[in-house]
Amino acid sequence: MAGKRSGVERAALDLSVRERVVGRIAPFVDALDEAVINPEPETIEDLQEAADELMRAIARVMLELGRSTELRSPPS
User: How many CB atoms are located within 10 Å of the residue 57 CB?
Assistant: First the structure.
């Protein structure tokens, strides 16, 4: 969804939030590849940790989007 965004939306999804998510993708993919090739307890644990880190980063995006929506909503 390209287009102009308000200052609130830009502030809510700043570069640090993006970097946090992007920085967790490669380790997740690497751990997934390793667990598929070598499904041992250690590689499965590594995958679980990588998945947890990625989900936490995505959760941060969702929280920031929620805050952005709250700030843009008119008071009741």
Answer: 19
The domain tally of the chain equals 1
Q: Is residue 3 part of a domain?
A: no
- The angle that helices 41-72 and 15-37 make with each other, rounded to 10 degrees, is 160
Residue with tokens 């200052």: 7
Domain residues for the domain of 28 are 8-70
pTM confidence score: 0.72
Per residue in 49-68, pLDDT tens?
Answer: 999 999 999 999 999 888 87
**HSE of 25, CA atoms in CB hemisphere, 13 A:** 6
Which one-letter DSSP state was computed for residue 3?
Answer: S
Q: Please choose, from the candidates 14, 1, 9, 20, the residue with its C-alpha nearest in 3D space to the C-alpha of residue 58.
A: 20
